[in-house]
Known about the structure:
The chain is α/β, with parallel strands linked by helices. It is 36% helix and 18% strand.
Amino acid sequence: MAVQIAPSILSADFARLADEVAAVADADWIHVDVMDNHFVPNLTLGLPVVEALLKATPLPVDCHLMIEDPDRWAPGYAEAGAASVTIHAEAASAPIRTLREIRSAGARAGLALNPGTAVEPYADLLAEIDMLLVMTVEPGFGGQPFLDVVLPKISRARDLIKGRDLDVWLQVDGGVNTETIERCAEAGADVFVAGSAVYSADDPAEAVRSLRAQATRASRQGA
Length: 223
Ligand code: DX5
Ligand code: ZN
C-alpha cells in the first residue's frame, strides 16, 4: 500500500479549523484526536466538532478516540460519517462488538495500543480491524518526543499482519517528524500521523509532501 500521511489537527489553531484543514488539502486523511480528560489527562473535542469538520473538508476523517467507554461512543462517530474510527484496546470492554459496529456503520475500524501495551495478545483481533495504531508517545499531548522503544513492536506488528495475510494498515502516532519517520517506515508502518511536524511548519502542505516522500523512500528500502 502507498504511504499515507494524516495531519493531526491537535496542533492546529482550533479557532480556524476549516482553514487549517484546507491548508493540508493533499494529505490522505485528517486525524482528529478525541480526548475526554479521563482516559488521557487532556480534553479536546467531541462529536459536534467532528460533525462540523466533516462538512468543512472533502478529506476522509480519521477519529482517534482517547476516551473511556469507547464501546458506548465509537459507533456514533462512524454513523456521523468519519471514514475511520480507532478505539484504544486499554479502554474497550467489548472490542470485538465495538469494532464490528464501527464497520457496519460504514467506517474503517482501528485498534490503538499504548506504548506499554504488547501487540501479541491482540493477534487474533487483527482479522476484525482495518488499521492497527501503534502509539509512539504516551497519548494525551502533541509535541512529545518519539519513543524509540516502540520500534520493535512496530516490526512485530507488521510480521503478525503479514503472517496472517491480512490487509491491515499500520499507523504510527506521536513524535513522527523528519527525524523519525524513516525509522517507522523501515519498521513497517504505512500510515503516519503528524501533528506538530505539519502544523508548526511554515508551509504545512509542503511538510506533508516531504514527509510522504521520506516515508516512501524508507519503506521501499525496507521492503
Ligand atoms: C497524541 C495524539 C497525536 C498528536 C501527535 O496523543 O494522539 O495524534 O496530535 O502530535 P505530534 O505529531 O506533535 O507528536
Ligand atoms: Zn492521535
